[in-house]
């Protein structure tokens, strides 16, 4: 087998050790380079002994981001139940604090079990008394209910193609409607139907899964598109993404959203790649917007310096630093790149200038925090240590101003 080619840039990798004597395996991931001397973190004494005896051979499974690699390790370990598998050194199936809302592959098993449950016909009055699970961004589409109701009425009360799913004991030991809200409401509004088919899911089956996994499966049960089913739309996808990362800080979430697992689940739900990309971007944008609003008090506005309407004010700020000896560059805190500054500095018009002022503006409070916490210290260190002859200073534009009355 041809070894996996090491990419130029990556944050982490998943590796596998195989015992050449008995084929026993250890799976793990590591943040860093494959050349940094790391040889594993297995706590099994037998692993250490086999390593010392030269019986283990390492293979790189995949390269990628920290989150993608820990998710891949988790998937692979769960697939073989490594902690209970005699052919694996691993004592756990991975996971940990980094995976606060990981969707386990076994969710497919729950989906299969629900699909194989035989529905029974139930009077809708019994179901209308139950609380409902809501995974969608918008609770109910009245237009979709109307469409379903018209179909039922046109078929003289035949709603045999509609099914409601109920989780037994989920609402303080009472049953909860999990899927089929629109079908239930359409049956209620119809002129003829008074019953509907119901799949009852026992508590010992669904209770093994987290709230986020149940949210994920509910989204899968409303894929794009399905006949007589309201397809999950972009807003639903954004809600799902934000629910996955709700336990992270806004900055962490902004960095982690868009993992391979995110895209995998969005694909299972039925979104195209184009829409999935739009959902990921929309989730990040909403995260930034929420942070921006939370940071402001009455009468304050966040200065969106990238807006063309702000050009004159931005130039007024930047011009104060321009002179015959100084090159001035204005960039957003997320858009500044050292190579672009260097390329600008060697242009004939700027080559003899001894000073560089980088004027930075921030598109959100989250971006501002990230700049001061991470980017500016990083660039200042690079300039000081690697470009000692360049006199570079960073200046930030005002982030907040009072709203004009």
Mind explaining what this structure looks like?
The protein is an alpha/beta fold. It folds into 3 domains: 12-84, no CATH class; 107-293, Alpha-Beta Complex (Conserved hypothetical protein from pyrococcus furiosus pfu- 392566-001, ParB domain), CATH 3.90.1530.10; 308-402, no CATH class. The chain contains 15 helices and 13 strands. The protein has helices at 45-52, 66-80, 107-115, 124-128, 142-154, 181-189, 203-206, 211-220, 234-244, 250-256, 260-269, 273-295, 311-319, 338-345, 365-386, and strands at 12-19, 25-31, 56-64, 120-123, 131-132, 163-171, 174-179, 195-201, 300-302, 326-332, 355-361, 391-396, 400-402. The chain has a 5-stranded mixed sheet. Strands 2-1-3 form a 3-stranded antiparallel sheet. β1 and β2 form a beta hairpin.
Secondary-structure blueprint:
Layout (H helix, E strand, L loop, with lengths): L11 E8 L5 E7 L13 H8 L3 E9 L1 H15 L26 H9 L4 E4 H5 L2 E2 L9 H13 L8 E9 L2 E6 L1 H9 L5 E7 L1 H4 L4 H10 L13 H11 L5 H7 L3 H10 L3 H23 L4 E3 L8 H9 L6 E7 L5 H8 L9 E7 L3 H22 L4 E6 L3 E3 L3
Parallel strand pairs: 5-7, 6-8, 10-11, 11-12
Antiparallel strand pairs: 1-2, 1-3, 4-8, 6-7, 9-13
Helix pairs in contact: 5-6, 8-9, 8-11, 9-12, 11-12
Count of individual helical segments: 15
Q: How many structural domains are formed by the residues?
A: 3
Report strand %: 15-25%
Terminal CA distance reads 70 Å
Radius of gyration: 28 Å
Main sheet: strand order: 4-8-6-7-5
Structural class: alpha/beta
Q: Give the SSE string.
A: EEHEHHEHEHEEHEHHHHHHEHEHEHEE
- Provide the residue-averaged pLDDT: 87
Poorly predicted runs are: none
Shape: flat
């Amino acid at each position: 087998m041809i070894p996996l080619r090491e990419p130029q840039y990556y944050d982490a990798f998943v590796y596998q050790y195989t015992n050449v004597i008995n084929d026993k395996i250890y799976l793990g991931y590591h943040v860093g380079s494959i050349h940094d001397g790391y040889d594993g973190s297995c706590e099994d004494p037998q692993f250490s002994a086999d390593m010392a005896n030269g019986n283990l051979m390492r293979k790189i499974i995949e390269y990628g981001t920290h989150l993608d690699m820990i998710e891949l390790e988790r998937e692979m370990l769960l697939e073989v139940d490594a902690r209970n598998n005699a052919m694996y050194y691993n004592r756990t199936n991975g996971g940990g604090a980094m995976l606060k809302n990981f969707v386990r592959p076994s969710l497919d098993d729950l989906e299969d079990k629900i699909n194989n449950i035989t529905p029974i016909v139930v009077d809708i009055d019994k179901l209308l008394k139950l609380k409902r699970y809501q995974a969608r961004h918008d609770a109910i589409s009245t237009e979709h209910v109307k469409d379903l109701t018209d179909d039922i009425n046109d078929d003289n009360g035949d709603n045999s193609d509609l099914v409601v799913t109920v989780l037994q004991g989920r609402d303080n030991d009472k049953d909860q409607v999990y899927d089929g809200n629109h079908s239930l409401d359409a049956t209620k509004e119809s002129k003829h139907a008074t019953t509907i088919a119901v799949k009852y899911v026992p508590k010992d089956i669904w209770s093994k899964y987290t709230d986020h996994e149940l949210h994920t499966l509910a989204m899968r049960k409303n894929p794009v598109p399905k006949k007589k089913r309201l397809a999950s739309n972009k807003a639903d996808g954004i809600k799902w993404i934000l629910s996955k990362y709700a336990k992270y800080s806004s900055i962490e979430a902004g960095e982690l959203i868009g993992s391979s697992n995110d895209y995998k689940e969005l694909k299972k739900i039925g979104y195209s790649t184009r829409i999935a990309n739009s959902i990921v971007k929309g989730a990040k944008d909403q995260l930034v917007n929420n942070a921006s609003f939370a940071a402001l008090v009455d009468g304050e506005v966040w200065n969106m310096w990238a807006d063309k309407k702000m050009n004159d004010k931005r130039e007024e700020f930047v011009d104060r630093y321009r002179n015959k000896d100084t090159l001035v560059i204005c960039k957003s805190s997320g858009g500044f790149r050292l190579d672009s500054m260097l390329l600008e500095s060697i242009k004939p018009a700027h080559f003899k200038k001894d000073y560089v002022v980088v004027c930075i503006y921030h598109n959100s409070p989250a971006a501002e925090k990230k700049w001061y916490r991470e980017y500016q210290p990083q660039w200042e260190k690079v300039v000081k240590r690697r470009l000692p002859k360049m006199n570079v200073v960073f200046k930030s534009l005002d982030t907040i101003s009072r709203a004009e009355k």
